[in-house]
Amino acid sequence: MRGWGSALVGSVVEAWDELRIHRGRVLLSLIGVGVAVAALAGVVGLGAIAQQAQIEQLERGSGRPATLVLGAPYEIATGKPGDTAVLADAVAVAVARYKIAYWGSVGYTQSMVQFRDGVDFVDTQTVSTSYGPMHRVQLASGTWFTEYDERRLAPAVIVSDEFYQRIGSPNLETSPTVTLVSDREITVVVIGVLPPSPFDSTLRMFMLGSAFAAIATPTAVAQLSPAYEFWVPTESAEQMTTLLQRDVAGAFGAGWQVDVSRQDYLAWEGGGDPLGPIRVVLAGIAVLILALGALGLVNISLVTVRQRIQEIGIRRAFGATASRVFFAVMMESVVATVVAGIIGVGLAIAIVQNPWVREQVAPGLLDVPPFPIEAAVLGLGAAALVGALAGLLPALVAVRVKVIDAIRY
Amino acid sequence: MSLLQLEGVTRSVELPGGEKLEILRGIDLDVAVGDHVSIVGRSGSGKSTLLNLLGLLDTPTSGRITFDGDPLEKLSGARRDRKRGRDIGFIFQQFHLLPGRTALENATTPLMYATGRQFWNRAKIAADMLDRVGLSRRLESMPDTLSGGEQQRVAIARALVRGPRLILADEPTGALDVETGAAVMQLLDDVAEQSGAALITITHDANVAALARRHYRLDRGVLAPVDVTRVLALEASGLHQ
Q: Which of A6, A9, A304 to mutate to test the interface with B (most CBs of B within 10 A)?
């Protein structure tokens, strides 16, 4: 055992000495590997940021995992929608019982808004204050709804960029107002603006459900038929689905249909990870880069070993076994690539964590992920693997050196 | 006590035409612990081939070699390598110091293949040995900054750091001038005697060979005892070539 310990340490020391003495050559040979590892770790790191950006985008639409949706109940026999007051009471009891912190109603309607150039229809989404954190709503300016906004006499609205430009992009600190036109004119205050979206140029706005109920006609409120959303822990999503369905259905009695289902992106049908294809493409590029780095290293290692035949012969004369020579040459390659890997990972971290780079990859990211540990581990593991593979061929050449010929060489 | 024994050893190689070239023929040699043997021979007489066999670097075509009572053919390659590292120290004509490494690092090389205290205390052991050969002030010197005599002294220190029982010196003064060569040989002889190791010197220089206690001559692959004083006398009269 003692012999193994000294052999192992000896091999590492020999490898390190060799790298130290030939640092110029080693440095040149490792540039390729270092760059490849930086690319590999960088691609994984940037991939994590891009993935986070995509997740946030998905969560804006469908809510954060696990988001449950309770649709408007209806009578099975007639299809008649249930009483919204009964539904609201049943939901309030259920969220108190199961201690659900983030929940709220969501409804879709259209409002008529008086712009300078005339009245236009605006897609209106009624939400609760919880909707913002549940859907990672990002604002270009202004603030999301707070409890204060529930008590406003002039309801607050958060509008799309298109809407905002239509009203002349006023300073939000001046509390700009617009007029909703229905059976009467209602003034609302713009408190926030959504970021511009290249694929969506519709006039849209958010309004608190409670505010809408206060200003809308009874008919409009009745037609809204809101759904309820609940943000629950992922591990208890299935159980909560069953419990919410049971409790709300119980409030309506027999003959009523109540549907609760999970709607966040992790529960989407079609299975698997929606980000899987991106990951596969990124991994493929990284592996290709690494393979090119490895080829360069093999080439240089082979030439180097041929230049070191006499040295290997001398070492054999002084007791180095064939396996020791094999291991030492292999270790040189592995130690060198691991050092290159550490530098490469460091470079990747510097690139990925750079705010400018991050902004280019994922503009407007809310939760910036830390540099993924798996990217660092993968980079170092790949470097060691490349070192072992690149060292294999030279090590085999070194073992085949004939001591006698090598010393005479 | 016998350390190294060669009985009827032959070594031949196959030429490209399929013909066999016999380099060594019927070699018998018995080297005891603390012995000092010299082998003289002209270029092409088979000296290097014999050295490789004595140093367990090669195996004979026929015959038997035993080291420390162990027949060579019974040792695996790895065990032979380990035995060589532990019990045999080499000194080469061209020194063969590793370039880019200091005198101390060169002297440490064999200890990298040792185990236990020899391995962990390798720097101190090597420094002590360099001190013993008079190079305590050149520990950090690179080979290319050392004189030929100093390089050979580093090589001697390197050969002795593991306390070998057999020292094989292949033309140890071949690359040195006469005066330096004599000093190096005196040092080698002293150090070998102090350590109790057997010393086999292979040389074409009768003066170097004369320092040994037993003398052999290798001629066309045949090893035979020789009276080295007669060779020296012949050399002095200019009759010996």
A: A6
CA separation for the pair A88, A104 (Å, rounded) = 10
Select from A217, A240, A267 the last residue of a domain.
A267
Q: What is the mean pLDDT of residues A323-345?
A: 85
Read off the pTM.
Answer: 0.60
Give the residue, B183 or A116, on which the prediction is more confident: A116
Phi, psi of A170 (to 5 degrees): -75, 160
Query: Residue ranges per domain, chain B?
Result: 2-237
Q: Which amino acid is at A292?
A: L
Report DSSP state, residue B94. T
Both A79 and A218 in a single domain?
A: yes
- For residues A207 and A250, membership in a common domain is answered with yes
* pLDDT confidence of residue B231: 67
What is the C-alpha separation between B149 and B175, in angstroms, rounded? 9
Collect all residues of chain B within an 8 Å Cβ-Cβ radius of residue A310: 96
Say whether both A238 and A330 belong to one domain.
Answer: no
Q: What ipTM goes with this model?
A: 0.85
Q: Does one domain contain both A165 and A72?
A: yes
Q: What is the pLDDT of residues A132-155, one digit of tens each?
A: 999 988 898 999 999 899 888 899
Q: Torsions phi, psi of B68, nearest 5?
A: 60, 30
pLDDT at A218 over 70: yes
Fold exhibited by the domain B2-237: Rossmann fold (3.40.50)
Cβ atoms of A333 and A342 closer than 8 Å: no
Average pLDDT over residues B162-180: 84
Q: How far is A59 from chain B (nearest CA, A)?
A: 60
DSSP strands (E only) in B15-149 = 20-32, 36-41, 62-67, 70-71, 88-91
- CA-based nearest distance B52→chain A, Å: 7
Q: Closest to B116 (Cβ–Cβ): which among A2, A21, A321?
A: A2
Write down the pLDDT at residue B115: 87
Print the domain residue range for A214: 67-267
Residue of B nearest to A310 (CA): B96
Q: What pairing do the DSSP bridges indicate for beta strands B166-170 and B88-91?
A: parallel
Specify whether the CB–CB gap between B89 and B159 falls below 8 A.
yes
Interface residues of chain B, partner chain A, Cβ below 8 Å: 48, 52, 55, 57-58, 77-78, 81-82, 84-86, 90, 92, 96, 98, 100-101, 105, 109-110, 112-116, 119-120, 158, 162
